[in-house]
Every structure is written in C-alpha cells, then in structure tokens.
Amino acid sequence: MKRRLILAGGVVLIVLVIAGVFGVQRMTASAATTKQVQTATVTRGSLAATVNASGNVSALSSAALGFTSSGRVAQVAVKVGDQVKTGQLLMQLDTTDLQLSLKTAQSNLASQRASFDATQANLQFALKTAQANLASAQANYDSAKAKNATNLDQLIVAKAALDKARVTLEQAQGAYNAIAWRSDIGMTTQAATLQTATSDYNSALANYKITAATINDTALRTAQASLDNAQVSLEQAQKNLDTSTRTAQASLDNATVSVEQAQRNLDNAALKAPFDGIVAAVNFSAGDSASGTAVNLVDLSKLQVKVTVAEVDMAKIKVDEPAQMTLDALSGKTYKGTVTAIAPVATVTSGVVNYTVIVSIANADADIRPGMTASLVIEVEHRDNVLLIPSRAVRSSGNVKTVSVLDQGQPVQTPISTGLAGDSMIEVTNGLKEGDVVVVNTTQTTSSNRGTNIAIPGLGGPAGPPP
What we know:
By secondary structure, the protein is α+β, with helices and mostly antiparallel strands.
C-alpha cells in the first residue's frame, strides 16, 4: 500500500514536470521574437544629388521710385495694379518754378555765347595785327641787313680807288723828282701829271673817308630790335588768345551746364517707369508735397528666390544647375528654376558661414507673389543608367562598405564600392549586378501566436515555426 502511494506520487510528479515543461515551452513560443526582413532589388536608373534650401520669392526687377527733389504733386497718372510700360508717366510735379529756372539759364547761356564770340573776335584781330607787325618788322630787318652788306662793298671800292690814286701819285712824284733840277720844271708834263695825281689822290682819300664815316650797323640793330618786339607782341597775342579763350569757354561751359541741370530738374519732375511692370504702391495724391518714395514698381514676369546655402554645400552648386521649387502658400504645385548667380562673398552670422544663391523661376504663374516662402531642391549632379540600391542597405565600417545579398535565401555580406548618393538611393559602382537582392533592414516583432513569423537562418532566431 505504501509502495503504491509512492509510485502514484511519482507518476503525478512526472506528469506535473512534463506539464510544467510543456507550459514553459508554450509561453516561450508565445513570446518568441522573430526578425522580419525587407529587401530591395538592384536596378538601373537615374540618380540626382541635391541640396535643399529655402528662401523668399522676390522680383528680379523692383524699384521704389521717388523724385530727386521735393515739390507739389500736380498729377498722378496711375493706380495700384496698373500694368505700365517703360517710359510711361507715373506721377508729375508742378513745374512752374522749374520752367522759369530753365528760361533764366537759357538766357544766361545766350549771353555767355555772345560774350565768347566777341572775345574771340577781338583776340583774333589782335593776333592778326601782331602777325602783320611781325611780318613788317621782318621785312625792315631784311632790308637793313642787305643795305649793311652793300655799305661794306662801297667801302671796299673806295679803298681800292684810294690805293690806286696813291700809286699814281707816287709814280708822278718820282717822275717829277727826276727833273726837279730844271729851271723850267713848272712847265713840264711831269709837273702837270704830279698835280693831277695829287688832286686825284686827295679826292679818293676824301671819298674813302666819307664812305667809312657812313658805314655802321645802327640801322641793322634798330631793325633787329623792332623784329624782336614784334615777335614778343605776337607771342603775347597768342597767349592772350589761349588764356582768354579758356576763360570765356569756361564761362560758356558753366552756362551750358546750368541749362542742362535746369532741363534735368524739369525732366525729373516727371516720374516715369524705368521698366515694364505693375504698380505696387502709390504713396501721394495730387496736391501732396512729395518727399521719399512716390511709386513702387515691380516686374512679376521675372521672379527669383534668394536662398542661403551652407559653405559645405557651396562646392557642389554651379550656375545654370536646375532646381525644383514648392511654395508653402501653393500646396500641390511644383515650379522649375535655374541657378543664375552665386554670391562671391560669404555672410557670417554667429560663426555660421553661408552664401547667397539666386534661383530664377522658369515657369512662374499668376499665383506666385513676391514674399512667398519657397523650398528649393537644387540638383547638383545627375547620372543616368547606373546601378541603384537604397542607402539604408549599405553598412559602413571605417572605409569599407558592405551589403547583405540574398543567395538562395541566405544573406551573404558583400563588399561594394559606391558613387553618387541621393536622398534615399545610392549608386553602386562595384560589387553588385542588376537583379541582385539586398537586405534593406531587419525589423524585430514579437508574436503571441505560434507560426506567424518566419525567420531567415543566419539573420538571428531559429528557422521555421516555434514548437
């Protein structure tokens, strides 16, 4: 009896143990964690690398137009919303005083022009007179110089005649001395010849002295002095012409500038559109005293967005690169743009370095308004026909990049080389081929029912359903 109880107790214990083990297995199976795998197929396609930025829409051409001087508004020719053309009148100031100033300046210009002409005439007359005087003085000098040369020739002739008379006298004196012992010497031809030779010599001597006395360069020196004075007078007349002409010309130029300024002031009293656009604001009415901005004009046909880009992205962005734009105020619409300008100098705010990039909107419509907030995606690089996988499939360890490739249902760690990276996809340049299946990620789930999740061997957890 006692043996039976013990045996029965043992059977109960075994049954309880088996039941306990089975219960634990059931609980374990109910709380088993499996891993669900998401995969992607390697495909060929196009990939673009982008830079995101945001900014506000602005008009390429906009202007706050005002008058250069204050005045009373005489006419307002436009209203807000008007479409205007280049050169069209927008607003007009009263021009009564400006027209009077222009007439005064024109009268002064006419007076200065008459004074200039008279000054020129007088100076030209003085110059011509000095030139004539110089020519006359030059002629007198040439005549005196020629006469002085002739006087020298006359002296040479007189000296030759005197020398000849001296020789004749000496010969006659010698012939007379040879017969001077004769008592009838006075009646001889020798005496008569001596007398004639003496008379001729005295005459030649007197003529020589007269010629020598009249020969001097006084007339030549006088003519030279007159010539020099005439030359100085001509130079002074030319100098007066140059100096007085410059002075008169300066006065004439000042008068001309005054007319131009008066005309400009009159023209500026008419405010005109510098470009085609739409009137955004009219700040004065007729009769108001205009000071400051009178009319705001904007050209909505050419819109742009100015964005700030961090310095790390600046090397990627180039002029003429395409961009996509969305607006907070216009949901569901996408616009195209092109990078048109990049600021050469950065702006630094609180140590952060940014550059301004301007993107023109290519297909702007009537819904877009300046000031709207825009989000831009600038395409900085584009490649076609490349192998693509999701960026989440790539694992990095140092400089080594790998992916898990499914081979007959089993993951195989495969090293790869990558190229261009987009927002969610990345280019594979080596290690994979089109059609390969790669593991994107693994998500863990906990199941309370048996057989709801199937784990892939090698990725953690047993294969097949739990017991």
